[in-house]
Specification:
Elements: E1 3-6, E2 78-89, H1 98-106, H2 109-116, E3 121-134, H3 148-162, E4 173-177, E5 190-193, E6 199-201, E7 204-206, E8 208-211, H4 216-219, H5 222-231, H6 268-273, E9 282-285, E10 289-295, E11 306-310, E12 315-322, E13 337-344, E14 367-369, E15 399-402, E16 405-411, E17 417-423
Parallel strand pairs: 1-5, 2-3, 2-4, 4-8, 9-11
Antiparallel strand pairs: 5-8, 6-7, 10-17, 11-12, 12-13, 13-14, 15-16, 16-17
Protein name: M6 family metalloprotease domain-containing protein
Keywords: Hydrolase, Metalloprotease, Protease, Signal
Signal peptide: 1-28
Length: 424
């Protein structure tokens, strides 16, 4: 589920609610995730194009694969503190043990960012110790998933309920958890406000939040990581077109795509975008010809993590080495090897185009994995990830070509992978 942003300039409603779906039990298909509640011009990125392989920031839009504007989004570095509030309502009370259960569930989330960022990001969660009462019915906030202002109202009510006990000036993120009986809250959208449009408490403006829903019971703790990724400016990698194969673009290869995937690390491109990888760890190619590179595993520190080929004004092809790690766990639905994908800033989160139109079936999407073995679905894996499990180059000689870029696996020294990249 992506997030809503309201800038103080123009406000453009972006196909709100196209994929919003009621929560479902964990035994059913995963709940559909939806597009942003609202979007507007994000302004220029604070960072400049340091590397010629970075892609330019779109003129308008919200989350995208260009440099992030941290005047709006939250910088994903150092210690970021989040307060987890538990709220109930006049017509929805928690059951015994519910708060402890949610606290236990979310307790594993910070370690995902610690590993993914190579220790650059320390997400500290503080869990409130009691339920705070909102003197309204939960239905008073119906539409929170698709309206910036309704979600803001909900956040403001939660903050007001806890303000006498919590010093909100200590926190950059507010997470709001309702009881399971509050059925209005089905999914878990993130929320971002432009400066001046947040919720004020204890002299601080709160502009970054996540309001959780019943889908936590399906996704588990990784829903917190996915939604927090949006606060950092990372886009959704699944399709916002409900008629499409939702996870056709990246399958289970990135946490911003399929949350329940077996390989939930973030792409090297996202780690570079977040500042967790330096330019020196990116082998940038802007000319034709062939050259080799040795890629260290994405889940380990140090070394060259990706070859990036700038293939046009707003597109690039990325090559990275995915091996078993703390996040990419061993399973029949994770095939270690060299992964190749295309990145573009021509579309935004979920494949939405400038102006917010519903993306066409088949994309384009912000990221699309290049499949080495099209049609070789691993039927024992989930519907949303089975098509791209075998996308990787796993044996010497394996080759894929996309957009004039040919990548061949040439050696497998330990867990490192040597590739030849040819650009025509």
């Amino acid at each position: 589920m992506s997030l809503g942003v309201r800038a103080r300039t123009a406000l453009a409603v972006l196909v709100a609610g196209v994929l919003l779906a009621p929560a479902v039990p964990a035994t059913a298909a995963p709940p559909a995730e939806g597009p942003p509640t609202a979007g507007a011009a994000a302004g220029p990125a604070r960072s400049t194009l340091v590397s010629p392989c970075q892609l330019p920031t779109p003129v308008t839009g919200w989350q995208h694969e260009g440099p992030t504007n941290y005047a709006t989004w939250l910088p994903p570095s150092g210690t970021v503190r989040g307060i987890v509030l538990f709220v109930d309502f006049t017509n929805a009370a928690p059951v015994s043990g519910e708060r402890a259960g949610r606290t236990s569930t979310f307790g594993a989330a910070p370690n995902v960012f610690t590993q993914a960022s190579y220790g650059a990001l320390n997400l500290q969660l503080t869990f409130d110790t009691t339920w705070r009462h909102i003197p309204q019915t939960h239905g008073s906030f119906a539409g929170y998933q698709s309206n910036f202002f309704t979600q803001r109202s909900y956040l403001a009510a939660a903050v007001a309920a806890a303000d006498s006990a919590i010093d909100f000036s200590l926190y950059q993120i507010v997470y709001v958890v309702p009881p399971k009986s509050a059925t209005t809250f089905d999914i878990s959208p993130a929320w971002v406000a432009a400066p001046g449009d947040g919720v004020t408490a204890d002299g601080a403006e709160l502009r970054h939040a996540v309001t959780f829903g019943q889908d936590v019971d399906y996704w588990g703790y990784k829903i917190l990581n996915h939604e927090t990724g949006h606060l950092f400016g990372l886009p959704d990698l699944y399709s916002y077109n409900s008629a499409d194969s939702i996870h056709r673009a990246v399958g289970g290869w990135d946490l911003m795509g399929l949350i329940s995937a077996r390989a939930p690390d973030l792409f090297a491109w996202h780690k570079w975008k977040a500042g967790w990888l330096t330019d020196s760890q990116i082998d940038c190619r802007t000319t034709t010809g062939s050259a080799s590179a040795v890629l260290t595993p994405l889940g380990t520190t140090g070394g060259t993590k990706a070859v990036v080929v700038h293939t046009g004004g707003n597109t690039a092809v990325v090559v990275e080495n995915r091996q078993i790690s703390g996040l990419d766990v061993s399973s029949g639905c994770f095939q270690p090897g060299v992964l190749v994908y295309r990145v573009t800033t021509s579309v935004f989160s979920g494949g939405a185009s400038p102006g917010g139109s519903v993306p066409p079936i088949g994309g384009p999407f912000p990221v699309e994995v290049v499949d080495r073995t099209p049609g070789s679905d691993v039927t024992s894996c989930g519907t949303d990830e089975k098509a791209l499990v075998n996308a990787t180059l796993t044996a010497i000689g394996h080759t894929v070509t996309y957009g004039g870029v040919t990548v061949q696996l040439t050696a497998t020294p330990g867990n490192n992978r040597e590739v030849s990249v040819t650009v025509v």
